[in-house]
Amino acid sequence: KAGVTQTPRYLIKTRGQQVTLSCSPISGHRSVSWYQQTPGQGLQFLFEYFSETQRNKGNFPGRFSGRQFSNSRSEMNVSTLELGDSALYLCASSVYSGSGDEQYFGPGTRLTVT
Amino acid sequence: GQNIDQPTEMTATEGAIVQINCTYQTSGFNGLFWYQQHAGEAPTFLSYNVLDGLEEKGRFSSFLSRSKGYSYLLLKELQMKDSASYLCAVRDSGGYQKVTFGTGTKLQVIP
Q1: Inter-chain CB pairs, A–B, below 8 Å
Q2: In chain A, which residues have their Cβ closer than 8 Å to the Cβ of B8?
Q3: pLDDT under 50 in chain B at which residues?
């Protein structure tokens, strides 16, 4: 079974631009979560989607948004990029969104904002 | 909300045993995960505890005490490849459950 895939793997943008990242979960997984990872803050939860509905949201500004499609693929968008948005963005999928469900992580998208 | 604390770094010797602690303060609790993350790679699942006690899986064991808000990951017979960051994560309770990660413990295994 194929793992979680994320595209692109690396991205360089300039301040003020916007970016869209894509995540394809493991086949059959309906829950997709997004995280931002930086050396100082660790893994920070962005949001979770389940069956095309955002079910959880972390403490990030409204510039960060996402969506999930009927095939469970998910995208996240960051508008008006800031230097502080430079990070590794990880997507994780699980079968449900329930207790005990382990999350499988994709390789991440490394975003650099200059 | 969730507050999760782990030591930032640890060093241990190849072949030895190391215990990585995690304490948490939560408004709700529905399970604790441990993940391993090698540098430049994505986290991979190690263990899940929702009830008090010890869960053993090969060289790795994880312990949970819900009353104390405490967990540890025990790594036995350390190997050089165990050098990685170990992330403690807590799943919230409630209708919609989210997972909050600690900042991780960077373990260095030395010969």
Answers
A1: 53
A2: none
A3: none
